[in-house]
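Re-run with default settings, no changes from the original entry. Doing this only to confirm the output is reproducible before filing.
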Amino acid sequence: MDDLPASAIAHAFRKEYGRAVAVLTRVLGDIDLAEDAVQDAFAIATVRWPVSGVPPSVAGWIINTAKNKAIDHLRREASRADKHAEAMARLSDDTPETEDEGIVHDDQLRMIFTCCHPSMAMSAQVALTLRLVAGLTTEEIARAFFVPEATMAQRLLRAKGKIRDAKIPYRVPSEADLASRVQAVLSVVYLIFNEGHTASSGDRLSREDLGSEAIRLGRLLVELLPNDPEVRGLLALMLLVESRRLSRTTSSGDLVLLKDQDRASWQRDLLDEGQAIIRALLTRNEPGPYQIQAAINAVHSDAKTAEATDWPQIVALYDQLTHFTPTPIVALHRAVAVAEVKGPQAGLELVDVLGLTDYYLFHAVRADLLRRLDRKHEAALAYAAAIERSENVAERAFLQRRLDALADA
């Protein structure tokens, strides 16, 4: 087993890290100690698994190993504080030793609500939850927020300190307190799903584990807040986008654009469920940003072919979304839709005023519009800029193929 690839352990880390931290936090009552113990467990895995093989229950192995590392730490620190004695007492009780889906989900939801406490800035709430629940690296989170990695590291450190010093409880808040946290919680689930849909780095376009986890969390939130239209809107959005996942890449992993996808391969059960949610929400007439994004994706899924897409309706929906979320990212996506209605020049004029020069998709959109305008030299420069800024291997390969095609044209 010495040839066990490092990618197997890396995959296990990405899939199980957040779950294990959530479970250990419930047992220990200490986020820092839980995170350190889980990291120690994975360090042990890198030594043992190449020899003994990957255990049948990865989550159970990681949780038990982390539990034992935490016990060792607490024994060394037993004389320092009462909280260590309390944690030792908890660890002496029955701790979940296998991957219990019901327990895991409850623990993850508790962790999300713990991190999304209104005493912290919204950005800190979301960033910390992405670290502890989704297991994203500090670098990945920094990219999502368009800030330097060092800045994000300090933000995460302060957020964990705030939870510790303010003794924020590890639980789902009472119904009266839910409203003050739900916006941040939805942002977290949305960003987890986005990272799953298109990974910010790595050799695969998407991370199925994160996409599935986000949808499961979305379902739990609907159970918790069944009358919140935005909660249902987010679930619908994720279902509709996830329905296209299998058609987004070829068998060899190459990216396939929406317009070129085999629509017959879209997952009908997810499409039907997402569209049913949207139809029910439309009757309520309480629009919000997640519902509108879901509606945009519903329009795409309604079209039998790419040519049949109702682009004027999509532009109108982006106009409505801009009212709720007037960000450059929304404006960029709106410009793409406008280009389908009014032509690439109209779209390019909207893109060029956005100034998202550090964002790879800004350059990728510009490149495509310039290509359609037959401005090959400028398109090539834009493709090169997009490639330079993308960390996802599948996206970089797609952009490189487009750049190579310009030279051959």
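Residues 94-105 have pLDDT under 50 and may be disordered. The CA atoms of residues 289 and 324 lie 6 Å apart.
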